[in-house]
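Example record

The entry below shows one chain as it appears in the dataset: sequence first, then structure tokens.
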Amino acid sequence: MAQNSNWMKLVGTQVGHFILGLAGVRLKNNAGGLHVRKNADDGFAPVTAETVGIQNNAAGAAPTVLKTSPAQVDPLQLVFPPDIGAPGDVLATDGAGNLSWEPAGGSTSMKWSADSTLLGFGSTAVVPMFALPIGAQIDRVDVIVDVAFDGAAAQMSVGVNGASASKYVAAADVDLKKVGRYTVPSTELPVVGAPEALEIAYSASGSVIGSARTIVTHTTPS
């Protein structure tokens, strides 16, 4: 053992650890790695520091430093998941600091989908769209008129086959004769009983030009 006023070096001794104070933590070496253990060596001890640095041994590598936000006023504890997740996953919190792996697009329980249907000037009076499953709920319907329709009374609505032809978009909500985007937020309750077959009810009114897209944004919470 060599010692001076600034350091102590233990070489070739039977001492494999330091204990700080009579009841302090135990610092020990384990195959070249520093372990901070409880005084009785029966578990790991917590460590508090302003920052924690992780350094790669590669030449010129910069350290990775972990630190808290200066705006943080309450204790914060994050509990990591027990596995490494799947490719492309991201960490999500349950609001209580418990982290889990989720697909990058978000939780599947509230994943939004968008279906688009083209309406052309020569379309039939009823244009089938897609089926909303039981439990689904529409957030909004966007009608994008790319080319204005030239029919004097050209109009459209979005509804349900065999039910209301304008449940989600009324004819007054969209002006097919003007290029633009028409957004209609939905106030309807989730689909119940059976899937809804959505469709566009269209009146060409003699149109020989015109093109529009109808985009329905919806989700099916689990």
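Notes for this example: Residues 111-219 form a domain with the Jelly Rolls fold (CATH 2.60.120). The first strand starts at residue 2 and ends at 3.
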